[in-house]
Amino acid sequence: MVSPTSGSTSSPVPSSAALELLAGLPSGTRVSVRYALPADDVSGLPLTDALGELVGPDAGGGAGTVTVRTRRGDVLIPAAAVRAARVVPPAPPRRRPRSG
């Protein structure tokens, strides 16, 4: 998963406030969401982040989920697993590869 950027526009918020923040944002807002992984996850890590565009709370994943569209695809996050969320600035434009 992608880690949140250091140049964020707002600080992380507790889980209930994070869910309220996400519910109040329009789709397409760039966010970083920290969430808990299941105990049996192969990475062995307790938490991870999803960085990308908010598709929406409860969009496509059923009740109790938040969907974030990352570079690797959509991440469906159970609402109970959300620990923090923040709005982040737009991604910088991608650099063209060097030629020669």
Q: Can you describe what's shown?
A:
The chain has one helix and five strands, in the order H-E-E-E-E-E. Helix content is 10%, strand content 36%. It has a five-stranded antiparallel beta sheet. The termini are far apart. Mean pLDDT is 81; it is low at 1-8. It has 100 residues and is mainly beta. The relative contact order is 0.30.
Helix content range of the residues, please?
10-25%
Query: Sheet bearing the most strands, described?
Result: 5 strands, antiparallel
The multimeric state of the shown protein is single chain
Secondary structure category = mainly beta
How many H/I helices? 1
Task: Say how many strands there are.
Answer: 5
Tell me the overall shape: globular
Beta fraction? 35-45%
The overall pLDDT average reads 81
Distance between the termini: 32 Å
